[in-house]
Amino acid sequence: MKKLLVLLMLVMFCGSALAEEEIISLPQPVKTGGLPLMEAISLRRSSSNFQDTELTDKDLATLLWSAGGVNREDGKRVFPSALNTQDIIIFAFTKSGVYRYNHDNNSLTVIEHGDYRNYGAVQPFGAKAAVVLVYVQDVAKWPEKVPASLEQKKQAGFSHTGFSMQNVYLYAASQGWGARTVMSMNYEKLPEILGLTETQHLVLAQCVGPLTQE
Ligand SMILES: Cc1cc2nc3c(=O)[nH]c(=O)nc-3n(C[C@H](O)[C@H](O)[C@H](O)COP(=O)(O)O)c2cc1C
Where are the alpha helices (H) located in 103-149, listed in sequence order? Predict the structure, then answer.
C-alpha cells in the first residue's frame, strides 16, 4: 500500500513537471545558400563588438541547426561525436530567455525567462551578443560497454564542442555577423540556472550575432 502511494505521488510529480515544461517550435532552418565555404573560412575570426539585438526565429533556428542540428535521416548531426555519443547539449541565452535546443525536433525548451546572457559569458561583450550558446556535456551518454576515464570522456566532449563551434563561426561569417568562443562563464551560477545533473558539466560558451560598425 505504502509502495503504491509512493508510486502514485511519483507519477503525479512527474506529470506536473512535464505539464509545466514550456516548448517553443522553431521554424525550419535555412540549409542552402550562404557564402561560399572558402570565403567563410577566410572570414572566420573572434569578434567582440556585438550589437545588443535579437535574432529572428528563423535565424535562431538556422544558427542552432548549424551548431548541432540533425543533418541525416538516421538522426546523426552536423558535428561528429566519439562512438556517436551525442553527449553535447546546447543552451541558447538571449535577451528574452534561456532555452535548451532540442535538436531532434527543432524546438526549444524554456529554462528561464529573462536576460541571463552575462552568466553565459561574463565579459562585458557577452551581455550584448544576440545569442550566447552554452555547451554542456553529459558524460552519462558514454556507452558503459566502452571503458573510458572521466578525463577521456571530457576530452571527447571538448572536441565535439569544438566542431560545433567552428560551424557557428562559419555560419556567423557567412551572415556577416561575429562570434567568439569563451571560457569566461559563470561556473558558479550556470549549473543552477540550467538545472545540470551530476553527470552534466559546462564545456565552453560562444557569443554570436550581428556586430556594431566599429
Ligand atoms: C578554448 C577557447 C577559449 C577562449 N576563451 C576566451 C575567453 O574567455 N574570452 C575571450 O575574450 N576570448 C576567448 N577565446 C577567443 C580567443 O582569444 C581567440 O580565438 C584568439 O585570440 C584567436 O583569435 P581568432 O579566433 O580571431 O583567430 C577563446 C578561444 C578558445 C578556442
Answer: 117-120
Contacts of residue 57, Cβ cutoff 8 Å, sequence gap at least 6: 26, 27
Give, using CA atoms, the residue closest to atom 23 of ligand 1: 46
Nearest CA to ligand 1 atom 7: 182
- Residues 47-81: pLDDT tens digits? 999 999 999 999 999 999 999 999 999 999 999 99
- Residue 57 pLDDT: 98
Cα(first)–Cα(last) distance of the chain, in Å? 69
127 residue type, one letter: A
184 lines ligand 1 (CB under 6 A): yes
**Phi and psi based region of residue 136 (left: phi greater than 0; alpha: psi -120 to 50; beta: remaining):** beta
pLDDT in tens, 133-173: 999 999 999 999 999 999 999 999 999 999 999 999 999 99
* pLDDT of the residue at 6: 57
Per domain, the residue ranges of the chain are: 22-209
Determine whether the shortest distance from the Cβ of 166 to ligand 1 is under 6 A. no
What topology does CATH give the domain 22-209? NADH Oxidase (3.40.109)
